[in-house]
């Protein structure tokens, strides 16, 4: 089943009003105590630092717990890293890291590391070298700095020791070159220099760079660097687990480019060097088409590991991109070094958690309208020779209802039920009019195949 990570322009306000990157869990004094092991770790923490503490939680990445349990030293037992602040009578108390190890089967605090940070961005456990301890990479937040700082630690002899640190706007750590070892990818601003003294000008930047760092025997060094789009203001989504071909992994960077627009850059390796095809004609064309005023991010729409880039188009009959009534289709394109290829086109309603994949012969000839009934959409033939409001030859319609809403059940006697949402909050029904015998006839089985439940 397809997994689609996107939202349509129509429902953008819904998501921007509800999604928050700051987690209330940061204010919790204790983590959920679901297991005996977690109870023992928290007891060991309190014995070492007292109970007047606040746990802190990473706000992004794969590890979102204040307690991260992991084997850090290749011994038979795991260790636990605990992120916390002491409840001191000072504003923005510094973040601390407590290391809790198992000694003779008992969890005990063995190290406590202070930092100047006030929060955690993300945490990685990686391997930059063939032989050596696990590399613990922690991205820290600072209250007076828009940039973050990544610190690389090693846990040896029950000591968590910092080895290197790097400033960044965005941080990713993964195996880009597929050699079995990880690389660190850092996005940073290049400061604009004053003409007088050649010193960085306050608050000014003249570009954005992506650097790749790898270990060459003496620690991490910059192995390659490439410029990103100078118009990029921020990077809300970076996808690292996708490819542009079966053997070429890439970064797919969704970026805010001003005026409420998003764009997508693709960066990959060629002979050990980072390549940004931003200025290649084939990619410039796709980049221009993919500029969009909605939080639709690139995604592997057909789950073949090759990531697609979204291009949003109005359904025929709609002309005002600013109208809240406008209906959008999303075309998904794969980037190729010689040409781009469209993979599929969908109608997506992220608010109600569903999508329809549109047959290619429907594009430009079928449109979508809201009906007077709540949460119902009508797919109609489009005839450009007639006013759009008169395009009412219906192919099928679809309605969304909550699973607990019994009031509308009697109205759905002539409808057929589609799949149940994975959240079990909605049911999906379709109505196919017997009177329609046009070129786009579709049966219930085909609609089942076209339909999909949306997941992020």
The shape, in one word, is globular
Please count the beta strands (DSSP E, at least 2 residues each).
Answer: 27
Kindly name the structural category.
Answer: mainly beta
The proportion of residues forming helix, as a percent range, comes to under 10%
Biggest β-sheet description: 5 strands, antiparallel
Cα separation of the termini: 13 Å
Strand content: 35-45%
Low-confidence stretches: 1-31, 193-204
* Cα Rg: 26 Å
Q: What is the count of helical runs? A: 4
* Mean pLDDT, all residues: 86
Task: Supply database-style keywords.
single chain, globular, 456 residues, 5-stranded antiparallel beta sheet, 27 strands, 45% strand, disordered N terminus, mainly beta
């Amino acid at each position: 089943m397809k997994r689609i990570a996107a939202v349509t322009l129509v429902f953008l306000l819904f998501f921007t009003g509800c999604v928050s990157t700051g987690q209330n869990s940061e204010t919790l004094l204790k983590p959920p105590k679901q297991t005996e092991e977690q109870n023992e770790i928290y007891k060991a923490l309190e014995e070492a630092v007292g109970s007047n503490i606040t746990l802190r939680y990473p706000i992004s990445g794969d590890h979102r717990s204040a307690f991260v349990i992991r084997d850090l030293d290749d011994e038979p037992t795991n260790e636990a890293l605990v992120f916390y602040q002491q409840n001191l009578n000072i504003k923005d108390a510094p973040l601390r890291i407590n290391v809790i190890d198992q000694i003779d089967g008992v969890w005990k605090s063995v190290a406590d590391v202070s930092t100047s940070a006030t929060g955690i961005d993300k945490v990685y456990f990686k391997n930059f070298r063939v032989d050596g301890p696990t590399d613990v990479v922690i991205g820290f937040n600072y209250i007076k700095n828009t940039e973050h700082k990544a610190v690389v630690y090693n846990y040896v002899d029950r000591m968590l020791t910092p080895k290197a640190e790097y400033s960044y706007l965005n941080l990713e750590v993964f195996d880009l070159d597929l050699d079995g070892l990880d690389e660190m990818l850092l996005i940073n601003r290049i400061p604009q220099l004053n003409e007088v003294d050649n010193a960085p000008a306050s608050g000014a930047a003249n570009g954005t760079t992506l650097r790749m760092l790898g270990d060459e025997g003496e620690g991490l060094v910059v192995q390659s660097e490439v410029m990103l789009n100078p118009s990029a203001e921020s990077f809300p989504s970076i996808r690292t687990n996708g490819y542009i071909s079966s053997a070429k992994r890439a970064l797919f960077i969704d970026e805010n480019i001003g005026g409420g627009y998003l764009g997508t850059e693709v960066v990959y390796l060629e002979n050990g060097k980072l390549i940004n095809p931003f200025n290649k004609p084939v990619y410039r064309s796709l980049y221009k088409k993919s500029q969009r005023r909605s939080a639709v991010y690139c995604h592997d729409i057909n789950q073949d590991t090759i990531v697609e880039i979204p291009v949003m188009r109005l359904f025929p009959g709609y002309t005002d991109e600013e109208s809240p009534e406008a209906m959008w289709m999303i075309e998904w394109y794969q980037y190729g070094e010689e040409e781009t290829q469209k993979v599929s086109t969908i109608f997506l309603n992220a608010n109600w958690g569903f999508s329809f994949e549109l047959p290619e012969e429907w594009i430009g000839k079928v449109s979508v309208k809201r009906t007077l009934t709540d949460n119902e959409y009508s797919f109609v033939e489009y005839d450009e020779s007639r006013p759009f409001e008169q395009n009412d030859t219906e192919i099928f319609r679809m309605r969304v209802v909550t699973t607990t809403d019994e009031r509308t059940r009697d109205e759905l006697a002539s409808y057929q039920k589609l799949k149940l949402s994975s959240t079990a909050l909605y049911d999906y029904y379709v109505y196919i009019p017997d009177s329609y015998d046009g070129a786009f006839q579709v049966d219930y089985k085909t609609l089942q195949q076209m339909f999909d439940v949306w997941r992020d």
